[in-house]
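Hi team,

Filling in the usual template for the complex we talked about on Friday. All components are listed, including any nucleic acid strands or ligand strings, so the model treats them as one assembly.

SUBMITTER: L.P.
PURPOSE: interface mapping
COMPONENTS: two
RESIDUES: 400
SEQUENCES:
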Amino acid sequence: MVAAARAWEAASAVPDPEVPCVTVADLGILRSVEIEGGVAVARVTPTYSGCPATLAIELAIEAALRDAGFEARIERVLSPAWTTDWITPEGRDKLRAYGIAPPEGPAGKAALFSVPEVTCPRCGSRDTTRISEFGSTACKAQYQCRACAEPFDYFKCL
Amino acid sequence: MALFDAVLELADDHLVLGHRLSEWCGHAPMLEEDLAMPNMALDLIGTARTLYDHAGRLEGAGRDEDALAYTRGEREYRNLLLVERPNGDFAHTMLRQLYFAAFMEPYWQAALSSSDSVIAGVAGKAVKEMAYHIRHAGEWVIRLGDGTEESARRMQAAVDALHPYAEELFEAGAETGVLPSREAVRPAWEASIARIFDEAGLRAPSVAYPQTGGRQGLHGEALGPMLAEMQALHRAHPGATW
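RESULT (copied from the run log):
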C-alpha cells in the first residue's frame, strides 16, 4: 500500500471523542491526509467554532499517524466551513444505530423559527418533539419520540 | 494597523459576551437553558480565539491569544458597551443576545466573500451559529413579551434598558478593505428586530442619547470587575499550564 493510503487508513480510524461510534472520517472533519516532504499532513476542519473536542481530535489523529510510523503534522482548515452534509451515509447509519438521530435533509440557511421533522432512531416514528435546542454536546439537540416515549439526541443540521 | 484594531474589536465583542453568558452556568432558570447558554458561550469564545490569534499575527509583536485576552486592562478593551452589560434578569440576557446575533448574522454573511481567508473562514462557521442564536433568543423574547403580565413587563424593561446601546453596533471603524461595512447591516438588523418585537408586542423606545464609547476604551463600571475575575488566574500564574 502506498504511504498516503496507509496514512489515511490510520488517521481515518480515529473515533470522535464525544460521539465514539463514528470516526473523524465518517463525520467528514478529516479533510485529507497527504505525504509532503516525508511528513504525513492531516487537514482537519472543526465542527463548531468552540467545539471543545477540536484539540483532542487533532492530538488523537497525530498520535494515530505516529503509531503507524509517520512523522505527522496537523493543519486546521477553517474554510470551507464544516457542514453536516459532510457526514457520510455510513456515518449516518452508525449514528442511528447508536441512538442519535442523524441530521435531516441538506444543510441550508436555518430558517427563523423552523423546527425540523426528526425521525426517532429507536422506532422510526416521525411523531417526535423537540425538548431542548441544546443537548449533551454543542452539536446536538434533545428530542423525544411521542410514539415510543424515548428521549434521544438529534445531531443538528448545520 | 487598522485591520489589527478592527479584528481586535470583533474578538473583544465575542469574548466579553461569551464570558457574560458563561456566568449563567449553574444559575439558569431551567436545565435546558443551563445547557444552552454555555453552549452559545462556547461558540462566541471559539470565534474570539481564532480572531485573537489572527490579530496577534497581524500585529506581529509576539502577543498570542492569551496575551491579548488576559493581559490587557479595561481601557485597552474595545468591545461594544452592549456586550459588557451585566446579565440582569433572563429577559435582559436574551435581549442582549438577540441584538448582538441579529447584527452578527448578516455581518458574517457579508464577510463570507472577504479577501482575508481567516475572516472568511470564521464567517463560514459563525454565520450558522449566529442564525441559531437569533432563533433561540428570538423565541424567548417573543415568549416573554407575549407571555404573562409580569413577563411582558420585564421584557419591555429590558428593551428600555438596552435599546440605547444598539446604535453602537453600527459605529464605523477605520476602513480595512476586508471587513464588511457595519452600517450596511442596519436594514437587516432593523427588520429582524421589528419582526420579533411585532410578534412579542414590544416597543422600541426612541433614543435621544445613544450610549457609545466602547470602541475608544471608555466602558461602563461593569466591565472592570468582569475582567478582574476573568483574568485573575492568568495574572496570578502567568504562563501556567496543566
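MY TAKE: Chain A has two domains: 3-76, 88-155. Helices of chain A lie at 3-12, 24-27, 54-67, 89-98.

Thanks, L.
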